[in-house]
Design a protein that fits this description.
Helix content of chain C: 40-55%
Distance between the termini of chain C: 29 Å
Oligomer: heterotrimer
Distance between the termini of chain A: 55 Å
Strand content of chain A: 15-25%
CATH topology of the largest domain in chain A: FAD/NAD(P)-binding domain
CATH class of the largest domain in chain C: Mainly Alpha
Number of domains of chain A: 3
Strand content of chain C: 5-15%
CATH class of the largest domain in chain A: Alpha Beta
CATH architecture of the largest domain in chain A: 3-Layer(bba) Sandwich
Chains: A alpha/beta (562), B alpha/beta (303), C alpha+beta (370)
Number of helices of chain A: 16
Structural class of chain C: alpha+beta
């Protein structure tokens, strides 16, 4: 049985960073990913990574912007740590070879981004996430003697010992269908978000909430699940993202009447207000009939000088042309808010530890919380790296002081049976894709930018019905080599559990804060709701709710205007 | 029409039959060739590999000389490699005024200057786009009836498509197909027709080079082609001159004659094989094909 | 919505059957991608269809396939364009080439692509300890390596590499473009070592047959062949690396040949590529070329006079240009990917430049044939 000090699930930025940190700390490391590491969704992050490196800037300013951006739901101790450690992290990345953009003096150069009071976003053209991910993978290839990579292995369950500590995982080798039991002294979940619960979404097909569900199933509480970020500029229909960088470079938003409507909602920051504000503004315009017939508004990038667009926004020139048939340097492009990021996730402390000993989480899968009710652009890349590193270090430390656990073979047998049952399913069930589509469309309607009690209640019962249908959904592929059908069935299970948690959180929070907007509770209510909502498993009944306080260090909640 | 004619180097060196056949065919197509005798080698991509500015300057000079030919409708070349190498240089020169000015400064000492946007077309493109296939069809006196011709496009004249102006309006990567049919022949499609003859690596990896040539010739044989036609003399060298060695590398007898483009056109327009220099090839088309009846006689290859 | 027929190449290693084609009818708007079509077929009809995919937006590099015979990202090709390119209106989709097929449209990239990437030591080898702050590097150099950093490792270039087809050991376009990412990065301290290694390897930078397939295939404008040429240029001119494969010698011989003769004198080129007519390296080649030479002489293709004497002489103007360029301290290299487009460029030329500079791979009216 493969046995490592630290087993990392997910090889996006958080997972890879954790692996490098743990290896540097002397641990034996395994990193496992259901896709090749460079396919991870981190590579879609376009705009940049925030850090207060500029001597005229300060980490406190960055931290305050983040706290305010979070609508005061973010834990300020975690935010302070993230912002304080950001400059060092960016320099670490540069030393490893990231090809950051430079200013005229050859030093790291910045661009403007949403919700920030100073330009502090460091970038590589509009492929920052890709550049970071590929450089980290270069480092992983370099560290091949210390880090074992299990590429295209799909984790089906975390394993616990008799005390309930996490001691490993069971995974399926996608290539040949064999199952393996992996022992580890510490497991770090870094498997990303759950955008596929919504349709459309900017997220990749692989973002199915695997780690959130797996951690939940072993008892790790989830936190702030209702906080789903709708990115203001996504293409209608396929949900493809148009980076915030466009607005950072000076693009404007217009409704169908030609009004630059952000003036009404955020007169100071305009298009660079925080994402939830912009998304709500757009959705309001659309709902009140001032949008285009396809349910969109217009993003006008012609305002940016053409040469600059071709230099700094090349990817979206290509996206505009290839996916929308529009030359963004000559005409506006139609966009609408689209599901993009989940601020909520597995609850962790500032070292990435969950309350299950031996189980850590970092990156989008986790909720520390640094993003609270809304995430600022270019803070996600930062989050993954800071907490990826911290969880890797802490996990290595934990591992140093203990003996290798012996996960029980029963866990492996269980998972094998689970797979066998799926493969043996009788014909006649509903197709997996239909269930998934119904889930996604329903969530996009009832659990989106604007929510109501009735809508959320209906959502919950729909999810329960879909869970029934999913348990007998049709399977076509009964083979062992690259059986994506079976994996799809397992992922569907994860998505439905995660969706239920999202809806439960949204139902519970009877206020509007950050990304959560309840039409029946439109105000922010610090008195009653300045707290985190936690969800824990409760047999088959659906999650049990509890609360935890928001950690405040320096900043008292204020009215949030842009 | 009148063209500023760039014959390239190899047509005046190791494939003189190309130069000769072009000279015979041009008047039949009403093309007046004004040869650019002061121009230098295009660099074949090798000079550009060594130093882009050198290649760009040498070719800018050739373009400038072409632009000086009075009354010329355009510049014409007869070599895919020239077309590709020159198009690459032209792309850089045309894209950037500062660079073009810089190169023109060097040319100034000779009293030359390159004006942006020269039309430089390979004989193949010129025939289809300027003369027209219908006009050519009307001139055919000896249709290549029953002759199965495998088009060998190679690389430099078909990739990259955007640099070479290949699009739906100008499907230049199908012109050989169209021409063969216009001349009365039958196209023999085969696997290697858009692949590389291997010439660029003949000194660096002779085996890989000749394996490519050998395979494509073999593919054509398997497709029952009677001969290949190529618009590039460098391809011709690797496919014809080197065919005996290629046979050894791929381990099969080939005996596949390779025609230059003007030779194929000349045959259909009524010229004699010997006039067109067909007997100068290493794999003599005159040994393999009975041109007197324009029908394949099935004579085995005499090495 | 319209109907399209996708002809997918199926293969399952478990059945023991040979690969076969299977047609699927899909019903989607024409601007949706071939990947959307394949996923619809998978969702509605046969969930056993194997294809790697993730982002759907041409970023992750998972869905490399051959559509109508050409290597593309499936998510990056519209159905209505794909059908125009298909001779009988049926869009064929098969796995990428040069790599073993695992199942259906899934190839073993570890066996070929990643192996070759690892061959070029694909991580930064800094020169000395880390500075306190960031390394100071010129902005142009970072923009320059952004071109190779843009590679998403999709394998499309590897799929159709013609050198790799005849020489499977060729390091290949993706790996060599990756090598440039380091050679071109001022922070890397092993430039000479990298170049020496890749020049001396018989399957290294001089094994590229210069066919442009990789430039054509790349969805991101990386232009791998151009990077290989840059590596040759830097290895030969800046580091005087005289590789055992005769690559640099050939380049030098060609360049000198034109300097001397104005036009190429082929008879000199071959022996000079090996070091000269009487060089020990040249003798076996010249000997084995004797039958070829004799055949050429017998045919009258070449006369002894032509072969031995230089028919042409470079004009003073050509020699002057050579001297002018060679006398410069630093090469003047214009990279259109970096220089971008001129604002006052006329639309047609501007778009041609943008097409290559922006690296877009979906020009409106792509020709179907190559």
């Amino acid at each position: 049985m493969p046995a490592h000090d630290v087993l990392i699930i997910g090889a996006g930025l958080a997972g890879q960073r954790a692996a490098l940190a743990a290896a540097e700390a002397g641990a034996s490391v395994a990193i496992m990913s259901k896709v090749h590491p460079v396919r991870s969704h981190s590579n879609a992050a376009a705009g940049g990574i925030n850090a207060a490196l500029n001597p005229d800037d300060s980490w406190e300013s960055h931290a305050f912007d983040t706290v305010k951006g979070s609508d005061y739901l973010g834990d300020q101790d975690a935010i302070e740590i993230m912002c304080r450690e950001a400059p060092g992290e960016v320099l670490w990345l540069e030393h490893r070879g990231v090809t950051f953009h430079r200013n005229g003096e050859g030093k790291l150069g910045t661009r403007a981004f949403g919700g920030a009071s100073a330009a502090r976003t460091y970038y590589v053209a509009d492929i920052t996430g890709q550049a970071l991910l590929h450089v980290l993978y270069e480092q992983l290839m370099k560290a091949h003697a210390q880090v074992d990579r299990y590429e295209e292995w799909f984790v089906t369950a975390l394993v616990q010992d008799d005390e309930g500590d996490c001691c490993g995982a069971v995974a399926r080798n996608i290539r040949d269908g064999s199952m393996g039991l992996f022992a580890a002294k510490a497991v770090i979940q870094a498997s990303g978000g759950a955008g596929q619960c919504f349709k459309p979404t900017t997220n990749a097909l692989i973002c199915t909430g695997d780690g959130i569900a797996q951690s939940f199933r072993v008892g790790a509480p989830l936190m702030d699940m209702e906080m789903i970020q709708y990115h203001p500029t996504t293409l209608a229909g396929n949900g493809i993202l148009i980076t915030e960088g466009a607005r950072g470079e000076g693009a404007h938003l217009y409704n169908a009447e030609g009004e630059r409507f952000m003036e009404k909602y955020a007169p100071n920051k305009m298009e660079l207000a925080s994402r939830d504000v912009v998304s709500r503004s757009e959705q309001t315009e659309i709902n009140e009939g001032r949008g285009f017939p396809d349910g969109t508004v217009a993003l006008d990038i012609t305002k940016v000088p053409r040469k600059r667009t071709l230099e700094a926004l090349r990817e979206i020139v290509n996206i505009g042309r290839d996916f929308a048939g529009v030359d963004i340097t000559r005409e506006p492009i139609h966009i609408k808010p689209g599901c993009h990021y989940i601020m909520g996730g597995v609850k962790t402390d500032i070292w990435g530890a969950t309350n299950i000993p031996g189980l850590y989480a970092a990156g989008e899968v986790a909720c520390v919380s640094v993003h609270g009710g809304n995430r600022l652009g270019a803070n996600s890349l930062l989050d993954t790296l800071i907490f990826g590193r911290r969880s890797g270090e802490h996990a290595a430390q934990r591992a140093a002081g203990m003996a290798m656990p012996q996960p029980s073979e029963a866990a492996l047998a269980n998972e094998r049976q689970m797979i066998d049952r799926i493969i043996a399913r009788e014909a006649g069930g509903r197709r997996i894709s239909e269930i998934k589509d119904e889930l996604g469309e329903m969530m996009n309607e009832k659990c989106a930018v604007f929510r109501t009690q009735e809508g959320l209640t209906e959502a919950r019962s729909t999810i329960r019905r879909l869970m029934e249908e999913a348990s007998v959904a049709a399977i076509d592929d009964r083979g062992t080599v690259f059986n994506q059908d079976v994996l799809g069935a397992i992922e569907l299970g994860y998505m439905l559990e995660v969706a239920e948690c999202i809806v439960m959180g949204a139902l519970e929070r009877k206020e509007s804060r950050g990304a959560q907007f309840r039409l029946d509770y439109p105000q922010r209510d610090d008195g009653a709701w300045l707290k985190h909502i936690n969800l824990s498993p409760n047999g088959g009944e659906g999650p049990r709710i509890s609360y935890s306080p928001v950690t405040m260090t320096q900043w008292e909640p204020q009215e949030r205007t842009y | 029409m009148k063209v500023a004619y760039w014959p390239g180097c190899v047509s005046r060196g190791f494939t003189p039959e190309l130069h000769g056949s072009m000279a015979l065919v041009a008047p039949l197509l009403d093309i007046e060739l004004v040869e650019l005798d002061r121009a230098s080698c295009c660099g074949a991509g090798v000079i550009a590999e060594h130093n882009q500015e050198l290649a760009d300057t040498l070719n800018a000079r050739t373009f400038a000389l072409a632009q000086q030919v009075e009354g010329a409708d355009m510049m014409m070349n007869i070599c895919s490699t020239c077309q590709g190498a020159q198009s690459e240089c032209q792309e850089r020169l045309d894209a950037n005024t500062e660079y073009r000015d810089h190169v023109n400064e060097t040319l100034a000492a000779e009293g030359l200057t390159y004006d942006r946007g020269i039309a430089n077309k390979h004989f193949l493109w010129l025939m289809v786009e300027e003369i027209g296939l219908e006009a050519i069809a009307a001139m055919v006196t000896q249709p290549l009836t029953g002759l199965r011709v495998g088009p060998f496009y190679g690389c430099y004249i078909v990739r990259p498509t955007d640099r070479l102006g290949i699009d739906r309006a100008h499907p230049r990567d199908s012109y050989l197909h169209q021409l063969i049919e216009t001349l009365g022949g039958t196209v023999a499609d085969y696997a290697g027709q858009y692949k590389c003859c291997g010439f660029p690596i003949i000194t660096m990896n002779q085996e890989a080079s000749l394996k490519q040539a050998g395979r494509h010739l073999g593919d054509a044989l398997d497709a029952d082609a009677d001969c290949l036609v190529t618009p590039c003399p460098l391809c011709h060298l690797n496919l014809d001159l080197q065919q005996p060695l290629a046979e050894k590398v791929v381990g099969r007898p080939l005996g596949m004659p390779v025609l230059h483009l003007p030779q194929m056109v000349g045959l259909a327009l009524g010229l004699e094989p010997k006039q067109l220099g067909l007997n100068k090839h290493v794999v003599k088309p005159t040994s393999v094909i009975d041109w007197s009846t324009s029908v394949v006689a099935g004579v085995p290859h005499a090495a | 919505m319209a109907d399209y027929i996708l002809r997918l190449r199926r293969y399952s290693p478990e059945t023991g059957d040979a690969p076969y084609w299977e047609d699927f009818q899909v019903d989607l708007d024409g601007h949706r991608s071939v990947l959307d079509g394949i996923l619809q077929a998978k969702d509605r009809t046969d969930a056993s269809i194997g294809i790697r995919c993730s982002c759907r937006a041409a970023i992750c590099g998972s869905c490399g396939v051959r559509i109508n015979g050409k290597p593309r990202l499936a998510c990056h090709m519209h159905l209505d364009k794909a059908v125009e390119d298909a001779p009988d209106g049926v869009i064929s989709v098969e796995p990428m080439g040069n790599m073993p097929v695992i199942k259906d449209l899934i190839v073993d990239m570890d066996a070929v692509h990643w192996k070759k990437i690892q061959r070029v030591t694909p991580w930064l080898l800094p020169d000395g300890p880390d500075p306190e702050q960031e390394h100071i590097v010129a902005p142009e150099s970072m923009i320059d390596v952004t071109q190779t950093m843009a590679c998403i490792q999709c394998g499309a270039c590897v799929s159709d590499c013609l050198s790799m087809e005849v020489d499977p050991l060729f390091i290949g376009p993706a790996a060599l473009a990756k090598a440039y990412r380091f050679v071109g990065d001022p922070r890397d301290g092993q430039r000479y070592e990298r170049l020496k290694d890749l020049s001396e390897d018989p399957h290294g930078i001089y094994d590229c047959t210069h066919c442009f397939n990789c430039i054509e295939a790349c969805p991101k404008g990386v232009a791998p062949m151009s990077q290989i040429m840059r590596l040759r240029r830097i290895a030969g001119s800046d580091h005087e690396i005289d590789d055992r494969n005769n690559g640099h010698r050939h380049e030098k011989a060609f360049v000198k040949n034109i300097e001397r003769n104005g036009l190429l004198h082929e008879a000199d080129l071959l022996p000079d590529s090996y070091g000269g007519k009487f060089h020990p390296r040249a003798i076996p080649v010249l000997t084995s070329s004797l039958p070829v030479v004799l055949a050429a002489l017998m045919r009258g293709k070449v006369t002894p006079k032509k072969a031995l004497l230089h028919q042409h002489k470079a004009s003073d103007d050509v020699k002057r240009i050579y001297k002018h360029v060679h006398d410069k301290e630093k090469r003047y290299e214009l990279n259109l990917y970096v220089a971008g487009e001129e604002e006052d460029a006329g639309d047609e030329a501007g778009e041609a430049v943008q097409a290559s500079a922006a690296g877009s791979q979906l020009p409106e009216e792509r020709s179907p044939n190559t």
